[in-house]
């Protein structure tokens, strides 16, 4: 069996090769290691070989891991799961980023609950394929929604996040990623804080890099498959 260090290395090689092929710089694509359902010891293994960005989907589980790993204080924690209003305080207090903003009410709560000495980095989640099974705002709503988010003083709008529809062809998926990239380029013109296009997972890293992703969210390819029943 491959170790986490070995799998992380091969993901890094894929990123290097894909960025080269796409005539992009490898440092322009960050790697978020998605550690949901995986134990703290797995996070430590990735940390020991230099990984610093970690993503969690479930509030309680994420907060427990953040607390257990408090001494590793250069980890950047990203919340990437669905967020209900009764859990916003925990997220505002413990995480550095929230990538799944798609309701103003949740954003306002996060803004009010973020401690005064810090700001919370946020990405707006876009449902680029208008998939009824996916969260996120639609592309038409983006301008007005971004304007409202940018007004919240304790939040820093960093960009966009998406999960394209599953079971599309490569070409369809590339088209979805390209539409995201166009939205991102437009958003950057209006907000100087915007620098992040979070798209691409274990199965579609290359395609996402080809179409302008600046942050991959990779779980399985680093930590191995997750147990059945643990909500993918
Ligand atoms: C689980 C998850 C990922 C990682 O998916 P893999 O296919 O395991 O790489 C990325 N983004 C989000 C939002 C997820 O929930």
Main features:
single chain, 232 residues, alpha/beta, TIM Barrel, eight-stranded parallel sheet, 9 helices, 8 strands, globular, binds pyridoxal-5'-phosphate
Please provide a written account of the structure.
It is a single chain. It is built from 9 helices and 8 strands. The chain has 232 residues and is of the alpha/beta class. The protein has one domain: TIM Barrel (Alpha-Beta Barrel). The chain has an 8-stranded parallel sheet. Strand 3 (76-79), helix 4 and strand 4 (97-101) form a beta-alpha-beta unit. Helix 4 (88-94) packs across helix 5. The longest helix is centred in the last third of the chain and has 21 residues, at 170-190. The model has no long low-confidence stretch (mean pLDDT 96). The structure holds pyridoxal-5'-phosphate. Residues 34, 36, 57, 80, 163, 201-203, 217-221, 232 line the site of pyridoxal-5'-phosphate.
Topology:
Blueprint (H helix, E strand, L loop, with lengths): L3 H18 L8 E5 L5 H9 L4 E4 L2 H10 L7 E4 L8 H7 L2 E5 L2 H10 L6 E7 L15 H9 L4 E8 L7 H21 L5 E3 L6 H6 L4 E4 L1 H4 L9
Parallel strand pairs: 1-2, 1-8, 2-3, 3-4, 4-5, 5-6, 6-7
Pyridoxal-5'-phosphate binds next to strand 8 and helix 9.
What is the first-to-last residue Cα distance? 21 Å
CATH topology: TIM Barrel
Kindly state the number of beta strands.
Answer: 8
User: Any idea what the radius of gyration is?
Assistant: 17 Å
Low-confidence stretches: none
The DSSP helix count reads 9
Q: Approximately how much beta-strand content do the residues carry? A: 15-25%
SS class: alpha/beta
Within the largest sheet, what's the order of strands?
7-6-5-4-3-2-1-8
Instruction: Please state the average pLDDT score.
Output: 96
Helix content: 40-55%
Number of domains: 1
Small molecules in complex: pyridoxal-5'-phosphate
Helices and strands, in order, run as HEHEHEHEHEHEHEHEH
The second-level CATH architecture is Alpha-Beta Barrel
Please state the overall shape, judged from the principal axes of the Cα atoms: globular
């Amino acid at each position: 069996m491959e170790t986490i260090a070995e799998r992380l290395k091969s993901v890094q090689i894929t990123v290097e090769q894909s960025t080269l092929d796409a005539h992009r710089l490898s440092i322009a694509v960050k790697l978020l290691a998605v550690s949901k359902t995986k134990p703290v010891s797995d996070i430590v293994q990735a940390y020991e070989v230099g990984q610093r960005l970690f993503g969690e989907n479930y509030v309680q589980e994420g907060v427990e891991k953040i607390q257990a790993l408090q001494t590793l204080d250069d980890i950047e924690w990203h919340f990437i799961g669905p967020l209900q209003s009764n859990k916003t305080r925990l997220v505002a207090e413990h995480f550095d980023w929230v990538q799944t903003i798609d309701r103003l009410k949740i954003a306002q709560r996060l803004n009010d609950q973020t401690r005064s000495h810090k700001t919370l980095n946020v990405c707006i989640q876009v449902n680029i394929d208008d998939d009824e099974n996916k969260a996120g705002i639609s592309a038409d709503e983006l301008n007005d929604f971004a304007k409202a988010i940018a007004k919240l003083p304790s939040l820093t709008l960093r960009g966009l996040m998406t999960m394209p529809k599953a079971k599309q062809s490569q070409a369809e998926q590339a088209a979805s990623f390209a539409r995201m990239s166009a939205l991102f380029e437009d958003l950057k013109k209006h907000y100087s804080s915007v620098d992040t296009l979070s798209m691409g997972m274990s199965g579609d890293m290359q395609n996402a890099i080809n179409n302008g992703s600046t942050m991959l969210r990779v779980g399985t390819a680093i930590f191995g498959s997750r147990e059945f029943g643990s909500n993918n």
